Amino acid sequence: MKKILISLALILSSMTMQAATKIDHIEPENWYVGMKNSSLQLMVYGKNIRDSRVSVDYPGVKIDSLVRLDSPNYLFVYLNLSGAKPGNMVLNIDGKKVNYPLKARTMSGDKRIGFDNSDVLYMLMPDRFASGRNITKPMKGLNPYVVDRSKPSLRHGGDLEGVRQHLDYFNQLGVTALWFTPVLENNLPDMNSQSSYHGYATTNYYRVDPRFGTNEDYARLVAEAHAKGLKVVMD
Known about the structure:
The protein is an alpha/beta fold. It is 20% helix and 27% strand.
């Protein structure tokens, strides 16, 4: 009877833990196979996630270790991807299956060409350069902000499409590389007629600020810049 009660208690405890566990997000949101360093650190965030049981059943991937922090809402999972192929790896967290994308690299790092002292860099703030979409009304889902070109410290409405439409202009200047101030989401509300139009207030490192465009818009801009002989530096 004692063994039955203990087993029942363990089952109930496990069910309670699984019900209470809530996976909010995992960072980074995806990763790449074939990296020189095959180790991947995942930060799992969610309510009561710290003591979760984690397993993975994906060819070429194994869990090296789990690190449980003082906070009950964080768990670090260290993976070894030494033999992994591209695909959706499945993490099993307290019985919940979570798909995690492992992507193929477009090229190895040693084949990428950076800028050097032969380049002529043109640094610009996308918000201040040109607007291709002419969106002046605040977008839903973002903290309060104002687009007003008469105010020097508020947003003026420039975007990635505006930059893309002027790539020939940079060629005419003799520029060889473009350096944008950060274009990632910087969702700070305006305060006292001051805004984060410059981009140096990132709130999401995986998403282009919707006022500038989308991740796909950024990729398109970079591809077209490359086609015109222009490098792009990500700040």
